[in-house]
Recover the amino acids of this structure.
């Protein structure tokens, strides 16, 4: 490998490399550039690239008393892939993480990437969690989904739940309510790696500077003026599959079908925009959302495995 530090102009080459690796999950250069410039406050990272390889290691700011997890990401072009090349990329990441005093290395790999999984197993990585991915056919299920969206809107009206987008309602007071809801419901997501909590200003930048997110596609639910839930789809520019960014409902409003109704509104909007398929992902232990996905007609696709190795 003739690795050099990645710069902003490498975003397109890295997006092309990632797309060659997973053509069914094409990557947008604009999204790569966004991710590179919107890391959590206090995070540190290493990004290296050459013609056929992209290597990234990162970690959030260390918090006293918490285990120190670092992330490893290595992509090798399919035409250049060798076990030695992939292993060298992983070891380069681990070396940097050790210099950063990380205790555990974490890597996410698709379940069907047998070659990568074999290398990682040989290095001592073991499965810790499993992220399930689902895909919804918006063409074949168009009429069923639109009818369900209309029924859910009617049911929400009957229950006094208002479903609206943030378009024209992005004042700071409203956004702070969304922020608090997002942070609170994110804590419900099953995880092993501690979840980073951003400041309000960082959260606002991360959401609304994201080129895949728009206010008129950011849905919220209100009950008597109180924010009850949120759901939105990210639509990557240029290329990529639209996917659910997040869905969450405040604990006091659960059990009324609000999450389901919000998801149906985002799906109906995706159909109106012209999307043909939609993806979502959930931890394999998140039973309530998995149930909604199955009900809506999402079909399971290849999951990602989260593997860990103790660097000590």
């Amino acid at each position: 490998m003739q690795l050099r530090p990645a710069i902003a102009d490498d975003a397109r080459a890295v997006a092309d490399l990632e797309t060659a690796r997973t053509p069914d999950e094409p990557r947008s250069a604009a999204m790569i550039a966004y991710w590179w410039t919107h890391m959590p406050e206090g995070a540190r990272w290493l990004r290296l690239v050459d013609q056929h390889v992209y290597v990234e290691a990162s970690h959030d700011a260390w918090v006293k008393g918490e285990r120190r997890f670092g992330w490893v990401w290595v992509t090798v072009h399919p035409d250049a892939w060798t076990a030695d090349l992939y292993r060298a990329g992983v070891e380069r990441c681990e070396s940097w993480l050790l210099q950063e005093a990380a205790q555990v290395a974490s890597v996410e790999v698709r379940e069907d990437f047998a070659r990568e999984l074999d290398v990682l197993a040989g290095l001592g990585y073991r499965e810790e969690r499993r992220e399930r991915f689902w895909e919804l056919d918006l063409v074949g299920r168009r009429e069923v989904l639109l009818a369900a969206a209309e029924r859910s809107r009617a049911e929400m009206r009957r229950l006094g739940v208002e479903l609206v987008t943030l378009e024209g309602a992005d004042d700071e007071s409203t956004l702070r309510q969304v922020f608090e809801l997002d942070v609170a419901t994110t804590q419900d997501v099953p995880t092993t790696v501690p979840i980073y909590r951003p400041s309000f200003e960082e959260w606002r930048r991360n959401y609304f500077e994201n080129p895949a997110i728009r206010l008129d596609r950011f849905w919220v639910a209100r009950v008597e003026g109180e924010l009850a839930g949120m759901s939105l789809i990210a639509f990557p520019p240029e290329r990529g599959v639209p996917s659910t960014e997040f869905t969450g409902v405040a604990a006091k409003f659960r059990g009324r079908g609000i999450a389901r109704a919000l998801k149906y509104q985002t799906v109906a909007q995706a159909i109106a925009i012209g999307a043909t398929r939609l993806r979502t992902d959930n931890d394999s232990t998140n039973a309530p959302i998995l149930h909604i996905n199955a009900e809506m007609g999402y079909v399971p696709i290849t999951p990602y495995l989260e593997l860990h190795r103790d660097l000590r």
Summary: The mean pLDDT is 94. Residues 83-99 form the longest helix (17 residues). The CA atoms of residues 20 and 149 lie 36 Å apart.
